[in-house]
Every structure is written in structure tokens, then in C-alpha cells.
Amino acid sequence: MSTMASVLEDPTLERHFKGHKDAVTCADFNPNRKQLASGSVDKSLMIWNLAPKARAFRYVGHQDVITGAQFSPSGNLVATSSKDRTVRLWTPSMKGESTVFKAHTAAVRSVAFSHDGQRLVTASDDKSVKVWSVQRQCFIFSLNQHTNWVRCARFSPDGRLIASCGDDRTVRLWDTSTKNCINCFTDYGESATFVGFNSSGTCIASSGADSSLKIWDLRTNKLIQHYQVHSAGINSFSFHPSNNYLISGSSDGTVKILDLLEGRLIYTLHGHKGAVITVAFSRTGDLFASGGADGQVLMWRTNFDTKSYRDILQQHSRRSSPDPPPHLTDIHPRGPHLHHPQPSAIQISPIVADTQSTDPHVIELGQSVHSTTLLNGRTHSTPTRATTNSHHSNGLPARHVASSRVGGWMGDESTSGAGVGTWSQTRAGGGGRGRREEEEEERGQTHPLEVLSGHPSSLDSTLQHIVKQLDILTQTVSVLEERLTLTEDKLKECLLHQSHILKDIRASGERRRTESEETD
Length: 520
Known about the structure:
This protein is of the alpha+beta class and 520 residues long.
């Protein structure tokens, strides 16, 4: 066994969570270490409470595929993005309340908090990246230079930069104070699928549908690592908080773990049937989650980082000043720099043992109590459907969930159906049911899902009409905002031009005065 392998301890599958009825598209751990959130093609957000035998919550409200989910730094909010063009902020509790943000004119592909929790950044098929205020619940500004769908956007740890990537095959770096695009990386053969900063803010990584993963040093603007270890597109990745490791999830059905210090692949995990769509480390790095087309969320114990990460933390505590993040003036114009793909040097493939953990009871929470539509910068609250249902004698609502067909999560159109049935009649997308579930069904047992779903009211058609009108207004506002930005730019140019002319006039006047004085 090599020295590298002897130092490492293998990652282990700790738990699996079943409850989504279609592909899992996103996952994130609560910083409080007690919850895991996941979003799905089935339009629902699930909050898995990590305590043994705890109940899970299902939040219903989005009208289409959920594409992104992230906990706020304090852990008291979850933001979700959806193909229904909206972003929602949820309180991860029994109330199931959510606030709706709307300013994008097409599917929203990702959502992320700034590290202080004050702002959100979203990426959309309307080719824009937008920044929002969490406290004021309003949209602040747009970044508009992408020429195709934007797949992902993230804040740097200090909040001064935003990295974004998309189907125009570029990765862009933006200055949040000037709103300027300060760099553009265009080395992708296909769509750039995901982007992220390391925890110190010194590097960004980006992945592609061409199965490549690249890491750039922002202080030198050079491509420092290039991995080609997957056999299909990479859908998601996550830096370990120590910055020493990175996990990636791919359509080839595997999760891969890279050692960034050694510059090589160290593990390949085979836990999912079908594409792995999302991977995420917990905030401390001791756990990571993966979700995929099989509708499962798997939670893994990291293990391989225990020794090295502890040493690194001790070294950091001894140092008086850690590395500062790159200053905007340190980011040089990008020069040509070739960095060849790194093949896998060592592959350890631990066989994933299914722990057969029991599926948690699920409490379903209905439509949002109020929605916030953004119009001309003002916030309008609209009441939506109430969340009442027939109740069992134990005070819990009747079992009632919507089934869905498997839909292509990456595709343009959602294929989710609107049939109704119990959980025993629905299948996790692409995964099929376990023998235990089928046996229970034969014995007449079903998984107890406690549900709070809304009855359609007579207000629905009126509200839908209002929402359509607001959509049109939102699009108009978006167009006006872009025109205003262009007008502002032209005005700035005119003013600059005028100031140059005035300087020239003053200078020539001075010269004439000097000349006349000399002749006198």
C-alpha cells in the first residue's frame, strides 16, 4: 500500500434518505450540523433532520423543478431557486412559510448566500446574474454580459467578487462594487456547469459538461490544476473547508474525491444508480452529501481528512497572520497558460455498503403564507392558498402526496406529472423500490407521510391572472433597467468627453493669455 493510501481512511456511507419522488438536484448542510436540505425535480424541498428517528419536512410551493438550495450562514433560512422563475426563502420549521422573490424572466438555475447572509446571488436562463437583499427582500442589481443561459453563480468569501458560468462556455469574474466583469475564462469545449470559490477566496474552480474540472489562482490568474477524471459531464463539486480536497459528482454515476495538494484522484464512490447531480461538504468538512437521478440523498462520513485537517488547523492557530484573500488590484489581466489534464494516478473504489437506515417520517408543508413580487423596486405581498386538510384523530393531517414521472433535470421542460397517490404507489426517479418497501406494500403497509397540502380556492384563477400580468410588468421593468444602464453608460461617456473639451479650452485659453502677456 502506498504511503498516501496508508494515511487516508476511507469515506463511509453513513445514511441514505428516501422521500423525493424524482431526481435530487441540490443539497446543503445546515451550519448548525442538525439538518440537511435537498431539492428535486419533484418540485419539493426536503429538510432531513439528522437526529436518529427524527421526522423530515417536505415543503411544497414551487411550481416547477427546484434547481438550487442553500442554508443561510446562520442556518435559520433556506433559499431555493426554481425553473418556475422564482427564488424562495423558507424558514426550516413546522410553519413551512416562504417568501417569493421574482425578477428573473426565465428559469433560475442557482441560488447562493453571501458569507455575511445579507445578500443572495442567482443565475438564470435569462442570461443574467442578479443580486438581492435578504433583509429588504428586494432585487438590487443585474450583471448582464453572459450571452447564453447562466448555470451557476457564487460570492467570494469576502463578498467583493462574484464568479459565474454558463452555456456560453465562459466563466466570468465580477467586481460587486463596480459591477464590472474583471475577467473571463473561455477554455470550455462545452457548457460550463458549476463554479465555486475555495474557503480562502484565493482560487476558483469550474466544471464542464466536457467532464473537465479546472482550478484558477486569482492572484496570478493562471490555471493551476486541470483534472479529466470523469467519463461524463460534471454536474457539481464542493471544496473541503481545508482547501485540500474537492469532491465532484458526474453523469457517469460516480462521486470522485481529489487530493488538491497531491494533485490526484484518491477515491471513486459508486453509491448512486444513474447520474450524480449534486455533492456538498458540511461546513466543518466531516460529512458530505450526494444526490442523484435515483431520487436518493446519501450522507457520507469524510474520514480521509481527519488527521491532515487537524494538523492544518493547529498550524493556522500558531500563525499570526493567515494568507489574505486577493485584492482586486492583485487580479492581473489573464495571460495564456496551458495546464494539461491530470489523469488519475490512484483509484481506490470502496464498495458502498447500504446501511439500510429506516426512512424518516415525512411531514408535508403546503403553499407559502405570503409571496413577495418585486415591481419597480417595491415589495407587494399577496395572500396565497391556505394549508388546511382533513385531519386524523391524532391531530395530524391525512396522507396525500402528488406522484411524478421521471423528468430530465437538465432539460428545458419539466416532465413532472400531477397525479395523486400514496408514497407506496410512487417510485424514486430512476432508482426503483427496495425489497423491504415492496414487502411492506404487500402486507398493506405504507410509509407514513404526514401531509399539509392546500385545497384550490376560487381565488386561484384570479391570482393566476394577476401573476401573469405581474410577469409582463416584471419583464418590462427588466428591459427598462437594461436601457437605463445603457443610457447611464452613454451619459458617462458624454460627460467625460465634455470634461476633456473643457480642459482643452482652458488650456488653449491659458496659452493665449501667456502669449499676449509676453507680447505686451
